[in-house]
Automatic annotation (TrEMBL):
<dbReference type="Pfam" id="PF03922">
    <property type="entry name" value="OmpW"/>
</dbReference>
<dbReference type="InterPro" id="IPR011250">
    <property type="entry name" value="OMP/PagP_B-barrel"/>
</dbReference>
<dbReference type="InterPro" id="IPR005618">
    <property type="entry name" value="OMPW"/>
</dbReference>
<comment type="similarity">
    <text>Belongs to the OmpW/AlkL family.</text>
</comment>
<protein>
    <submittedName>
        <fullName>OmpW family protein</fullName>
    </submittedName>
</protein>
<feature type="signal peptide">
    <location>
        <begin position="1"/>
        <end position="27"/>
    </location>
</feature>
<keyword id="KW-0732">Signal</keyword>
Amino acid sequence: MKTSFKLSSALLTGFVAAAVAAPAAQAQTTPVVNTPVTTNMVLAPQAQAMAAPRSSSDDCGLFKTCSTTKIGLGKGDFIVRLSALGVIPQDRDSKLWLNGAAIPGRVKTTSQVMPELTFEYFFTDNISIDLIAASTRHEVAAKGTPLGNIDVGSAWALPPTITLAWHFRPHKRFNPYVGVGATLAWFHNVSPAGGLVQKLNVGVTGGPSVNVGFDYQLVGNWFFNVDAKQMFMRMHAWANDRGSGAFIKAHDSLDPTVVGAGIEYRF
């Protein structure tokens, strides 16, 4: 009996030792769970928060000046300008004929204000070429004639003008310029006044022009422009037909002064 008890005690002791040793062995053989995944999950928002801020040019709008915006105008720039245009005929010198005989009197042409569209391209930093397109309606009268003051009629003038300009301060916000050019003007929608004038014709004309002005960069690619042109041209008009009894011919040094101010955009 003593021997059996001793054997049983030894077996019990062995089982207890095995039960204690098993978890320890399992702890030694089981791989340790890697924690970088948890670490990455925690650091990811921090990494996003520490990302470099976007450049100001990334959200540059139409009416913003950004780090990539060119200052001033220069080679390769193309501009479209919309201006309010004032056309002021000077009527410097007039000559009138009635049935072929010279008579005293002068021609008077009214001033007008209309919108103007201009296209300009810079060949170099200093040299540009531009084309203006506008049409203005003018009333024409003969003043101080032997027949009194004669209301001749009206006509629309279309004087496209090409100008070659020199810009003094390229790549600066304020950039004044001077230019020389040429104008070719023709008249459309010509309407006789009636009464003494039953028929009216106005001939195509043209001549040289000079101009001065400046561009000023407002914001981004938007500029403000002021421009003054002096055109030199003569107008030739005929009222009625030959043999009608009141065939009137007129030559007038129209020489309009053209002043405009407007907004332009660089492409």
